[in-house]
Amino acid sequence: MKKYNLFQYFLLLISISCVERFIVPESIDSQDTNQFGAGDTTFLQIKPVWGSAYGFDDPEDISIAQDGRIFVADKGNNSIIVLNQNGDRPQGFQALLDLKDSMGENISPIDVDIDKKMNIFFIDGSQRIFIWNQYWNDVNIDQVSIGGTFTHNQTNIDTVLMAETDVWQTFLNDSEWSLTSTQMSNDARIIDSLLAPHLFYDGDNDMNKFLDMFYQSGLSDFTAITAPSDQENMIYVSDSYGGTNNQYRIVKIDFYRSLLLELSTGEYVWAYTGRFGGNIKGYGTGAGTVNRPLSLDVDYEGNLYYTQSGDYFPVHMIIPNFSGDFDVYTSGFQPEADDIMDADLFFNATDIAVDDDRNIYIVDNINADITVFDSYGNYFKKAGYGSDSVKIMQEPVAVAIDQNGVVYACDRMNGSIYRFTLSNNLNEDIKPED
Length: 434
Prior knowledge:
Radius of gyration: 23 Å
Distance between the termini: 63 Å
Number of domains: 2
Structural class: mainly beta
Largest sheet: 8 strands, mixed
């Protein structure tokens, strides 16, 4: 590698509080399933509640990273607040506080998720997706590619390109060309822009609008984001823009190589930008279709789960089939056959989360509780109730589950995070409600 000493700085293009009692509907078979283990009784609250003393104002979403840390999208603080399992605030995440875009405008995050590359993705309800990489910040970036030579794999013809051009990205992602030499820079402005939260995907980008010709990408209204459980170079978002074309859909966003980074560890890694990858599912009113989506999650098998406010079913799961020429997603739950499809169970299913055993947790901000199902969509239990079945939360809007089975819920009205665990999972590290 050789340094490039004469270059101009370029802009990086990455782009009810009433006391109520819960009664299980008579139509639901509430017998326990083996997935949760023998001796399950009820979900107990873990104390203390994480409220304003922990820095929360308007928590909108919560996600658990692979290292167990808890990431909360706090819309009121324009921040992603990070906690350890004990509620302490770890060092190294200050860049996620007081978020601003490239124009200096506040970013108010409404959803957050983390992939296996330690990319933290978040959205603000617009057509944009933002990214921040925890690992890069832990080890630091030494150098960034600002140009290089590409060699055609068949003709051996060389082409020299600068990294700020669209052609650079095209060659970088074309299997017919190989990057054979790279000009690197340690310019602090470029490195700092990569270490800071920055734009990963913009539906208003010309290329994304070209690839997404039928819909209006520039007007997308992203309501949820989720990352696959493994090393796949893609993420999913739900779009609830609507409009004349019923732009209610689940969208795949592909990773597109953007820059080559040399980390302080000596590793070479790619920085990516997001590129429109296709519509997974579109508008409809039947099982496995999309109508005003609210939330989104994916399990380790690649099955997608989402909730919605449109007709007719609040909760859906779709199963991918990659065996043909085109990817096909079919409904994994069926009306009248699976408890989870019973619309009478929910007033407003605002969020959905799937644990490592594919058990499903759905939070309802009007019911002010969490309904739990097994992987087959059979009803299991409710969470969010104290003694005498009195509701604990006021307006829960998001849910997540850690590897220990602890259930976390964001309560918008209380500005707090509540935690629950099955009574047979209690251990000396957590304190149940008295």
